Amino acid sequence: MRRKYRKDRRPTLPIEGATAFYARYCADLIYKLHRHIRLAQLIWRYGSFLRRLRRDPEARNYADAAMKLAGD
Could you report the per-residue pLDDT of 22-43, keeping only the tens digit for each? Predict the structure, then answer.
């Protein structure tokens, strides 16, 4: 996440009002934080699944009906 400054605008654009800028900036930060938390949850969830799968000695021997038909 990058830090934004109210006065960092293109020279052709006027400086934005503080209330509008910081309201949108805070909303944007909350949105991005929520997205990062969701991503971390997915990484944790699938990482946990992967660790269990790697520890399972029978994982390589697994085959369901669809996998057996594909090999024929």
Answer: 999 999 999 999 999 999 999 9
